[in-house]
Every structure is written in C-alpha cells, then in structure tokens.
Automatic annotation (TrEMBL):
NCBIfam families: hisC
Cofactor(s) required, per the database record: pyridoxal 5'-phosphate
Modified residues annotated as N6-(pyridoxal phosphate)lysine in this record: K210
Protein name: Histidinol-phosphate aminotransferase
Native source species: Thiomicrorhabdus sediminis
SUPFAM superfamilies assigned to the protein according to its UniProt record, in alphabetical order: PLP-dependent transferases (SSF53383)
GO MF term set: histidinol-phosphate transaminase activity; pyridoxal phosphate binding
UniProt gene name: hisC
Length: 353
C-alpha cells in the first residue's frame, strides 16, 4: 500500500464488535441478540420472497416497508427512512445531520460506534460525563455543541431517560438535531417517536435486531420530520441505491404484522431480566437498573474479566470492557429460561467457590 493510503486507513480506529464464536455449543450472552427465534409468519414471508423475483433488484425505496412502519407508528411515509441495520442508519445520520461547526455531544459512556463514525466522517465531538449512578443528566447538554446523540436506554449501562426528560432536552436544544438511538427501547421504555411531529429537530432510530429477533436480517429505520429524512435519503442515494434486500423488506413487514409474537418475546425477556437481577443481587452484585435486554453488573470481590473467564470455562460468554469507570462491569445479555438458569448456576458456583 502506498504511504498516502496507508496513513489514511491507519488513522481510522474501527469499531470492534462483540465476539461471534465459530462453535455453537456456547451459551451466547455477549451481543444482546434475542434468545427467541423470529415468528413462523416472518420466516414464511422470507421464504416466500425467495421466489423467482430474487433475480430482480428490490424496490430501491423499499416503499412497502416504509409504509408499513409509517402505519405502525402513525406517521407519514416521508417521515420514515430504512437501512441495512441501525448501524447503517446511524452512519447516514452522522454524515447527513450531525456534522456541524460545533462538536457533537454524547455521553462519556455510550455506544462505542459513535466516536468511530466521528472519526470516519471528520466530526468533532465532546463527551458529557454521566452521573455517579450512570444516569444521563439532560441539564448537562445546554449552550454548547452543534448536535446531540445518545441511546435510550443507554448502552452498555441499560439506564433509561423518561419521555419527560427527553422533552426537556428537546426544548432546551431547539437549534440542534437530537438523535435518540432506541435499539433497546421495547424492553420497558417509552419511545420518543410520539414526539417527532412536535419537535422537528428529533430523529429516532430503531432496529429489528433486538426486540424483533432479526439481527441476521439487518434492518433498521429512522423516524423524524420529513426534512431530516430527506437529508438521510440524499446520503443513502449517494452511497448505495439498494440498501434493503428483498428478503429483508418482506421479513421486516411480516414482523410488524405479528404484534402478538413481538409482545410475547419482549415480555419473556423482561421477566427473565427481573429474575436475573434478583439472583445477581442475592450473589452480592451491584446491578444498574436496566430497561434493556441486558444487565450491567459488578461484583465487589471479583473483577469482571475474572468472572467472564470463569463463565467462558463453563461455556457461557458475556461481555466486559477495558475502559475506565466501567472495567469492573459485566454486560450480560438476557437469554431464554434455560440459558438463564445455567448462567445463574454457573455464577453461584463462581461466587461461592
Ligand atoms: N445502537 C446501539 C445502542 C446498539 O447497541 C446497537 C447494537 N450493537 C446498534 C445501534 C446497532 O444495531 P443493528 O445495526 O443490529 O441494528
């Protein structure tokens, strides 16, 4: 590689995703996937989409899916943007909406893709410290900055901001685009989509990867004022004219058509989260209150790395972070009941050994 290109590439500091192990006899609680399979109706819709139309390009605008999402959330179709997973939707938002002459603001502990996109698109950023108990304080986001982004609930802490707090943030920052990344909102939070018609600076991003069990299909979407969506469409059309494949379009539509399966898996995950939280507390863990499909917990007597390694020896993988302030915390994805029982047994053995 020439010196010139090598310097450009080496200046990028890419995101490192959680491990996707090549063996499948592990209990995988490290990347916040849904432990339940997609509904039969979704699988059938995907199978049906593999008919002889697969040789043709899909609809470049994915209008069928946009309309389904618009109907589901009671907004207009031109208020919906769809992409290949919410990571891609976020990438387009960073490029189209968040590059300003003032720095982008986000919490100091948050989704670690944000600084990566800033590096990729040449966006200055400033991190705002979380409170002692890992909460975002909306009052800290005044005066400064050109735009704001944060996950709600936050990742990897799982802490939720209420709609009231988000509204306060929007009122205090009417001159800034505010992006709320709701990857985990369906596990007990209230979506800010209900605010988009009132606050035209608000963009809400969601995904089908978590609550809809479709991480492998790669579908994400953004909802906001039509002008913000137009900005995203312009970037997308300059990047990839077919962001959604045919299977993803039909599978995603079928997911929005099956409310019962969606609600049922969310309820099951919330119940298991409460069971796990109780168990962790009884073993002496400090558990941050979670509204996501994972918990964030630390133990006074064992390092996160130690526990993660011991769990791995028992064929269970969880996540820990080599970062200041959170290096003592494990992030554990909520599994199904059997996985959770195995996890609880393994943790009891480790803590009481
Ligand atoms: N936002 C947050 C906060 C996440 O944790 C993730 C998952 N890693 C994403 C967005 C991206 O999810 P996906 O691309 O699968 O939609």
């Amino acid at each position: 590689m020439s010196q010139f290109w090598s310097e450009l590439v080496h200046n990028l500091d890419p995101y490192v995703p959680g491990e996707q192990p090549k063996v499948n006899n592990l209990i995988k609680l490290n990347t916040n996937e849904n432990p339940y399979p997609p509904a039969d109706s979704v699988l059938e819709a995907i199978r049906n989409a593999t008919d002889d139309k697969l040789k043709l390009y899909p609809d470049p605008n994915a209008d069928l899916l946009k309309q389904r999402i618009a109907d589901y959330f009671s907004v207009q179709r031109n208020q919906v943007f769809v992409g290949n997973g919410s990571d891609e939707v976020l990438a387009h938002a960073f490029q189209a909406l968040l590059k300003k002459d003032k720095p982008l603001l986000f919490p100091d502990i948050t989704y670690s893709f944000y600084p990566v996109y800033c590096g990729l698109y040449g966006i200055d950023f400033q991190t705002i410290p979380l409170d002692e108990d890992f909460a975002i304080n909306v009052n800290d986001y005044g005066d400064q900055g050109g735009a704001i982004i944060f996950p709600n609930p936050n990742a990897p802490t799982g802490r939720l901001l209420t709609l009231k707090e988000i509204e306060k943030l929007l009122i205090n920052n009417q001159d800034k685009v505010v992006v709320v990344d709701e990857a985990y909102i369906d596990f007990g939070g209230q979506s800010a989509i209900s605010l988009v018609n009132q606050y035209h600076n608000l963009l809400v991003i969601q995904t089908l990867s978590k609550s809809r069990s479709l991480a492998g299909l790669r579908v994400g979407y953004a909802i906001g004022h039509a002008d913000l969506i137009d900005g995203l469409e312009r970037v997308k059309n300059s990047f990839n004219s077919y962001p959604m494949d045919r299977l993803a379009i039909y599978g995603a539509v079928a997911s929005f058509d099956n409310e019962e399966a969606f609600q049922q898996s969310c309820r099951a995950i919330i119940n298991t989260r409460e069971t796990l939280t109780d168990k962790l507390q009884s073993l002496g863990f400090k558990v941050i209150p979670s509204t996501a499909n994972f918990v964030f917990a630390s133990h006074p007597d064992f390092s996160a790395e130690q526990i993660a390694q011991k769990l791995r020896e028992k064929a269970i993988i969880v996540r820990y972070f080599n970062k200041p302030r959170i290096n003592e915390f494990l992030r554990i994805t909520i599994g199904n009941n059997d996985e959770n029982a195995a996890l609880c047994t393994a943790l009891s053995e480790i803590i009481t050994s």
